[in-house]
Amino acid sequence: MEKDLSLAEYYNIPLEKFAELGVLNPNLVQNTNMFIDPVLLKDSQYEIFSKTAHKKYREYFEKLYENVKTYINLPQKVKKNSTNTLIRKLKAKGIPGLCLGYSSSGNKDNGIGNKNASKILDRAEELFSLDIDENPGIFSVVYMLTEKIGPDYISDMTAQIILDEIKEFTQEIAPKLGLPIQNFSKYKLPKHPYMEEPVLLLPEDILNLLPIDVDMKDVYMGYRPNEEIRDKVNEYISDIFKDYHKKKRKDVQNNLTKFFKENTNVLNDFVTYAMKRNSSHYDFNNDKYGFYFPQKFRKMFDLGEIASVSPLEIVHETIMRFKEKIDNNNDIKRNLLWVNGKPKVEKAWQQAFHLTIFQKLEDADFDVVPEYQTGSGPVDFNLTKGSKCRVFIEIKLSKNDPLKGLELQLEKYKKCIQNKKAYFICFNLEEDNQKYQKLEVDLKNKAKELNLDTEIIVIDGRINPSASNLRLNFDK
């Protein structure tokens, strides 16, 4: 069975080795939701990316820009063969060995095919036909304005262009990490443990949560137009982005395209800005979104053996041991669940719980499904063992309106699908002791008032000076 481990865990390599080299330690089953941001190539600490790969990437789009400009002026009869050639150049095949992207499986990443590549070409032809400055950087704007083109595409396209540089980097770094290598064509690379492909390594400093190129609003927020066009931009583009979250992305893209076609001076200015803007790579030291959380967690967290009792008792005992660990151990909270004196986002706390129950309940033949769709929305966890044992678990931080979550979310989910047991777990982060105690009372009163059979579990998520500190040896 494929165990959901990181590369470091699989080969028993200290995570510190990856950190010293500034190299991503990828997950082997679940893709890491990071993307190669092409804007970051030029600033990498490794010259193979800052010099060679950056130059190769830039030249690729300079050539592609010339090809599209030539294509636009071709006679219609000649265009067909050229169309197919350009679509091939705009397609981006996923590279599974990178273990990056939104796909839930590191073994599958299909990239984009002819249909979406054709959409990019159509949008490029639409914009390149305008009277604009010759600037290959306009491809950044083309991507932003093309329907269904997202961060995976940017990352896959970049990786495809600089694949040789990635392989050379992997070949150089793998021995320094102590990874076993073998021949793959002209390179000596580490084999992916679960595939007949190599696993490819990347420096952390070219990776981002989401390449800013693909989200027009993020780019626009940093855009400062030149004085000559400022009023026009502020008036029209600001209006397009008004109530952005309520609008369909496709509609925003079409409105922006129309505006740029009617105002080519703004398009030229925006392209220049998009090319010169700065970007920051993801901070893996603070790791706000917990990409390295699972392996650190598994290293620190052990619930001990749970006796084989009934399925519902196993679930309950696992939850209660998890509660005891979090309640009484500041080290776990300080090192895993808080950053810079503040609690991490709710997803990180859910992840900690997921890793705990997955460790214990998988061994007891439970199916553990996060974000389970009920018909009335996703419940945080659905645990099943056979057809007669189903447990729902919903998790909230105290700052995220847990009373509402208990009353409106979990109870709706329970009505949709029959279950044997439901838990509502609240991580209480209230600093004021009176508020802390009141929240637990309010939750239990609400459950009683509504005659709910849901079990309320309140866990102390605070770093409490008075808590008993069970000191852990992180090196074991």
What is the number of beta strands?
Answer: 11
Residue stretches low in confidence (pLDDT < 50, at least 5 long) are: 104-109, 466-476
Mean pLDDT: 83
Structural class label: alpha+beta
Q: Summarize the biggest pleated sheet.
A: 5 strands, mixed
Fraction of residues in β-strands: 5-15%
* DSSP summary: helix tally: 18
Topology pattern, helix = H, strand = E: HHEHHHHHHEEEHHHHHHHEEHEEEHEHE
Into which percent range does the helicity of residues fall? 40-55%
Our measurement of the CA-to-CA distance between the termini, rounded to an integer number of angstroms, reads 25 Å
Radius of gyration: 26 Å
Shape: globular
Order of strands, main sheet, comes to 7-8-9-10-11
Protein model, in words:
This protein is α+β, with helices and mostly antiparallel strands and 476 residues long. 48% of the residues lie in helices and 11% in strands. It is built from 18 helices and 11 strands. The strands form 4 sheets. The protein has a 5-stranded mixed sheet with strand order 7-8-9-10-11, sandwiched between helices. A hairpin with a 2-residue loop joins strand 5 (338-339) and strand 6. Helix 10 (230-241) runs antiparallel to helix 11 (249-262). It is globular. The two termini are 25 Å apart. The model is unreliable at 104-109 and 466-476 (pLDDT under 50).
Describe, in short, the structure shown.
The protein has 476 residues and is an alpha+beta fold. Helices cover 48% and strands 11% of the residues.
Structural topology:
Blueprint: H1 7-10, H2 15-21, E1 35-36, H3 47-72, H4 76-90, H5 114-128, H6 138-144, H7 151-161, H8 163-177, E2 182-184, E3 187-189, E4 207-208, H9 216-221, H10 230-241, H11 249-262, H12 264-276, H13 293-300, H14 311-328, H15 330-337, E5 338-339, E6 342-343, H16 346-363, E7 367-373, E8 378-384, E9 390-397, H17 402-416, E10 421-428, H18 433-449, E11 455-460
Parallel strand pairs: 9-10, 10-11
Antiparallel strand pairs: 1-4, 2-3, 5-6, 7-8, 8-9
